[in-house]
Amino acid sequence: MPASEPIANPSSSPSPDPVMPANAARPVAVVIVAAGSGSRAMRAGEAPKQYRPVAGVPVLERTVSVFVSHPRVTDVVCAISSEHAGLFQPIADRFAGRPVFRGGVTGGATRQSSVRAGLEALARAGFDGHVLIHDAARPFLTHAVIDRCLERLTEASAVVVSLPVVDTVKRADADGRVEATIPRQGLWTAQTPQGFRFGAILEAHRRAAAADRDDFTDDAAVAEWAGLEVRVALGDPANIKLTTAEDFERMNATLARPLDDIRVGTGYDVHSFEPGDHVTLCGVKIAHTHKLNGHSDADVALHALTDAILGALGDGDIGQHFPPTDMRWRGAASEVFLKDALARVTARGGLIAHCDISLIAEAPKVGPHREAMRARVADILGLTIDRVGVKATTNEKLGFVGRKEGIAAIATATVRLPS
Ligand code: MG
Predict the structure, then answer these.
(1) Is the pLDDT of residue 221 over 80?
(2) What pTM value is reported for the model?
């Protein structure tokens, strides 16, 4: 990770367009505050909450995605802890092709010092414009909220995205005795993002640091302390801050996404006969006058099926993931390849809905072994047997299969991924 080096590149910020109103053309940078250890959401041994997945996607990745896909955002910086560099790297890699994403900068011991580190990195890169400061743990932010915040920034130098208080508010003492009912009129609860004129909030943070003030709980409070006028923009009740383990469980349940990105992949494979006494087809050993020649157990059916699954994922082929030159796969049971393909589906939050294999061979006879083959494939893939088809045909004595020189297999797999 580039640590504390400048991550923003001023030359790539759009230059002001004289036809556009001044604010609309201003670059918009984002500082995502992701340096915390989030101990309230953690169980022993778990990653900090911003690196934990919600419905399969790390919280920070979700948050970064919202900003890099916003048409007005020009720079996205994450203030992270150097201890989390290893957790941050895979997320940074995912956005490597997005020029707006500027990577990580090392944050400080407090939220406030982490924000300042992000602002200083932008300042070193010569950034000027508007900046949105956002907590990594609010991944459900929408573009509509960002738009409301930016719109409000056309008339103010500091904006806090907030919700009006709708519940009646009580103040209680340490024993839980209610002391007062606070009129909720004019009360708002602050969310993030909070938006600022860059120079104004940078100056406010520098002054707060110089004054040894590090107790502000949000950046609007820093702005208020510095004497800036802060205005509210309407937030979104869905823009929650993930805090406790229960928050994660609830959102995992809510976000279980429909697996309606349905893909069909095909695979084809051939292996030739050589002297031997059995073949392995669909993981089932069948006595025969020959064996199939191959680097692994030469299970032509499972190879075709593995390619069908990889094809559905658009993720290369069996030869790419398991090169025949690699001695590790010599004599390997081909279920290793199939399980690897399954793991790739699972890693993307998907499942295999169905697979179908056609064996093309003059011999041996497949019929007597068909149910064992279906059961074996279903077992390897964790499917019910009704989701596995195994069929066989001869080649009417035509071609290499007809001359009993080998066996061919064709497979299809239906894979369902999150939309
Ligand atoms: Mg093969």
Answers:
(1) yes
(2) 0.60
